[in-house]
């Protein structure tokens, strides 16, 4: 690894690499050190060093640890998050939402006509908009439905808020849905229609910090997020999700994630779908 480090544009030694990983883990729970992510970390942060005209990672770490480095910290974290997402990714979750979860909620919440859903780690918004389309197609218009969409990465939250997606990002949406929920721009991009956008509140939120919402929530989507966390962080998060969810609430997690040996507050009811135990 050292030879590779020495041939790079910006000098970085093993101690500096570890220090950077530790900062990301402490702040956001993101595990980089033991995941063979050296090249990725280097590549993403090298862009920051160029933008800041810094000569080495030594200088970059000094900046992050200084009082002036506060504003850089957001860029640092944004650079290190992995934001891969898509509309209707893991579509069986949206099918389950439409055919099982929402019909039950329509019965259970008939008095209040209220549904509360959280997309935790929503990336650039494709997940909460997929939820919103599913809900709007299933639940009557006079219901009070709110979807909270949060992410650590401020660039992602802004993208979600804008609700504009390049044509290449729209392939997961059927033609019928595109016609119903999106407006086409001249370059082929899609802009989410206002009615759908208003169902969602986008906010920046670090899952490791305090949460402003009271609950109880009916549904939580936290997919492809805990995969980056260590076991202790996963356990704490699962406990907090259980506390926030309604006793009949549903939790969706990502395709390569599990709560097995992480939490006994949930029982598995479908493929990566959990109910409170
Ligand atoms: C791979 S994306 C998953 C997006 C979407 N849930 C999906 O499955 O398509 C993971 C997201 O989790 C966010 N994330 C990572 N650590 C976080 C933390 N500590 N708090 C909040 N969001 C976090 C990242 O910024 C990223 O956008």
Main attributes?
Chemotaxis Receptor Methyltransferase Cher, domain 1, 10 strands, seven-stranded mixed sheet, binds S-adenosylmethionine, three-stranded antiparallel sheet, 277 residues, Rossmann fold, single chain, alpha/beta
Description:
It is a single chain. The protein has 277 residues and is α/β, with parallel strands linked by helices. The chain folds into 2 domains: 2-80, Chemotaxis receptor methyltransferase CheR, N-terminal domain (Chemotaxis Receptor Methyltransferase Cher, domain 1), CATH 1.10.155.10; 92-276, Rossmann fold (3-Layer(aba) Sandwich), CATH 3.40.50.150. 43% of the residues lie in helices and 19% in strands. The chain has helices at residues 2-6, 14-28, 38-52, 57-64, 70-80, 92-108, 126-138, 154-162, 175-181, 194-197, 231-244; strands at 114-120, 144-151, 164-165, 182-184, 190-192, 200-204, 217-222, 245-253, 266-270, 273-276. The strands form 2 sheets. Strands 6-2-1-7-8-10-9 form a 7-stranded mixed sheet, with helices on both faces. The longest helix is centred in the middle third of the chain and has 17 residues, at 92-108. 35% of the residues are buried. The structure holds S-adenosylmethionine (SAM). The site of S-adenosylmethionine (SAM) has 25 residues, from loops.
């Amino acid at each position: 690894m050292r030879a590779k480090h020495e041939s790079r544009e910006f000098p970085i030694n093993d101690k500096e690499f570890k220090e950077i990983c530790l900062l990301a883990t402490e702040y956001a729970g993101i595990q980089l050190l033991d995941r063979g992510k050296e090249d990725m970390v280097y590549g993403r942060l090298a862009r920051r060093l160029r933008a800041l005209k810094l000569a080495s990672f030594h200088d970059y770490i000094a900046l992050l640890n200084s009082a002036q480095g506060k504003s850089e910290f957001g860029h640092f974290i944004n650079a290190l998050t992995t934001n891969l997402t898509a509309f209707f990714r893991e579509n069986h979750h949206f099918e389950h939402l439409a055919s099982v979860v929402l019909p039950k909620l329509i019965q259970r919440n008939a008095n209040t006509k209220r549904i509360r859903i959280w997309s935790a780690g929503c990336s650039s918004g494709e997940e909460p908009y997929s939820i919103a389309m599913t809900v709007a197609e299933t639940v009557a218009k006079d219901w009070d439905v709110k979807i909270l969409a949060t992410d650590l990465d401020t660039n992602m939250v802004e993208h979600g808020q804008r609700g504009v997606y390049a044509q290449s990002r729209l392939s997961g949406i059927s033609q019928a849905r595109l016609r119903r929920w999106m407006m086409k721009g001249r370059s082929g991009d899609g802009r989410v229609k206002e009615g759908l956008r208003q169902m969602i509140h986008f906010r920046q939120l670090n899952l490791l910090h305090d949460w402003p919402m009271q609950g109880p929530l009916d549904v939580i989507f936290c997919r492809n997020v805990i995969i980056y966390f260590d076991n202790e962080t996963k356990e704490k998060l699962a406990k907090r999700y259980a506390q926030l969810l309604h006793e009949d609430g549903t939790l969706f997690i990502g395709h390569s994630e599990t709560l097995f040996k992480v939490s006994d507050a949930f029982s598995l009811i479908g493929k990566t779908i959990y109910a409170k135990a």
